[in-house]
């Protein structure tokens, strides 16, 4: 019996929807369907009732679900336990981080952790929320910074910082004159956004879709400095999270809040019902009590002159 098929069975039973389950598992719906059918053939029972629109467990499926959950959980716990034994309990931490470390002062947290626990070997895994979510689910990392509450329902989490969507607009654009920009005002405009598949991209796409239009994406990139450079040259409007604009302001462009407010807060996440190493527990405690988070509403800004950053003297 394939262990991964059991994991997929549990996720499908919890979601009650093939599309949502396949997205959570990062596989296609057809693959998920084949794997569930393979389980049913192996046990010679039907696990799901296929006569209704809603994916519903049969009596045999409900009975099997409890056993499957315990097997999956024990597998996850075994991986953590073995890793801790091999690396020495409490002396190694695998941490998932977003590329925007400095913008949210996460580098300060890591520096503080290094100083407080010099005996701990910290392994940093950088990626967007989608990549880190997969690694956290698979037990490749213990804790991770992820963006967006809707993306982390399967994890334990602690709010790290509130953040919200803004537009970076060149001064020669009429939209730069107001104190906010309604999302509907972006219809038909040339937009510069984060990479497709990133949480920030998804937030933008969903907001536009709710108003029955699709984004007109001129350019997308994971490097914020590249997005800002397009705006400064007057090529388009960039959609970013407020925190990502901390070090890329320029006199030739304005950063303006999007209305209605679209939040993409940052959370520190870890697996539910799983065993955490003492190193991970100490990191979570440090983040909860960390008081050096930037105030995004009143942040003093570094002037940006691509491709270099030049610090303005403080007044």
Overview of this structure, please?
This protein has 315 residues and is an alpha/beta fold. The protein folds into three domains: 3-81, Winged helix-like DNA-binding domain superfamily/Winged helix DNA-binding domain (Arc Repressor Mutant, subunit A, Orthogonal Bundle), CATH 1.10.10.10; 88-159 and 265-289, D-Maltodextrin-Binding Protein, domain 2 (3-Layer(aba) Sandwich); 165-264, Periplasmic binding protein-like II (D-Maltodextrin-Binding Protein, domain 2, 3-Layer(aba) Sandwich). Helices cover 37% and strands 21% of the residues. The protein has helices at 3-15, 18-25, 29-43, 59-87, 106-116, 129-137, 199-210, 224-232, 278-289; strands spanning 48-49, 56-57, 92-97, 121-126, 143-147, 155-161, 165-170, 181-182, 191-193, 217-220, 237-241, 253-259, 266-271, 304-305, 308-309. β3, α5 and β4 form a beta-alpha-beta unit. The longest helix is centred in the first third of the chain and has 29 residues, at 59-87.
Q: CATH class of the largest domain, please? A: Alpha Beta
> SSE string, helix = H, strand = E?
HHHEEHEHEHEEEEEHEHEEEHEE
CATH fold field value of the largest domain: D-Maltodextrin-Binding Protein, domain 2
Number of helices: 9
Described by the principal axes of the CA atoms, the overall outline is flat
Which CATH architecture of the largest domain would you pick?
Answer: 3-Layer(aba) Sandwich
Distance separating the two termini: 67 Å
Major β-sheet, in short?
6 strands, mixed
Q: What is the count of β-strands?
A: 15
Average pLDDT taken over every residue: 85
Runs in which pLDDT lies below 50 for 5 or more consecutive residues are: 299-315
Spatial ordering of strands, largest sheet = 8-12-7-11-9-10
The portion of residues assigned to helices is 25-40%
Please state the structural category. Answer: alpha/beta
* Oligomeric state as shown: single chain
Number of self-contained structural domains: 3
């Amino acid at each position: 019996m394939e262990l991964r098929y059991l994991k997929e069975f549990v996720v499908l039973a919890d979601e009650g929807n093939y599309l949502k389950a396949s997205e959570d598992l990062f596989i296609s719906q057809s693959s998920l369907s084949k794997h569930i059918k393979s389980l049913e053939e192996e046990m010679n029972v039907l696990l799901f009732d296929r006569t209704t629109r809603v994916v519903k467990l049969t009596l045999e499926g409900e009975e099997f679900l409890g056993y499957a959950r315990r097997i999956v959980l024990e597998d996850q716990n075994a991986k953590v336990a073995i890793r801790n034994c091999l690396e020495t309990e409490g002396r190694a931490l695998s941490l998932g981080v977003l590329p925007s470390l400095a913008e949210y002062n996460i580098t300060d947290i890591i520096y503080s952790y290094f100083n407080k626990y010099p005996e701990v070997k910290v392994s940093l895994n950088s990626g967007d929320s989608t990549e880190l979510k997969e690694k956290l689910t698979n037990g490749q990392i213990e804790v991770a910074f992820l963006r967006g509450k809707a993306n982390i329902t399967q994890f334990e989490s602690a709010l790290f910082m509130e953040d919200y969507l803004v537009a970076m607009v060149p001064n020669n654009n009429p939209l730069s004159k107001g104190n906010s920009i309604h999302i509907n005002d972006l219809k038909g405009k040339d937009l510069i956004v984060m990479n497709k598949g990133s949480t920030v991209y998804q937030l933008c796409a969903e907001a536009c879709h709710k108003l029955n239009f699709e984004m007109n994406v001129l350019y997308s990139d994971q490097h914020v400095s590249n997005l800002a450079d397009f705006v400064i040259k007057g090529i388009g409007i960039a959609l970013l999270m407020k925190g990502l604009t901390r070090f890329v302001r320029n006199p030739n462009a304005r950063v303006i809040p999007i209305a209605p407010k679209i939040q993409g807060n940052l959370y520190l996440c870890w697996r539910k019902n799983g065993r955490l190493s003492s190193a991970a527990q100490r990191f979570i405690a440090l983040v909860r009590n960390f008081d050096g988070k930037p105030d995004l509403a009143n942040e003093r800004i570094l002037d940006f002159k691509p491709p270099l950053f030049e610090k303005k003297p403080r007044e």
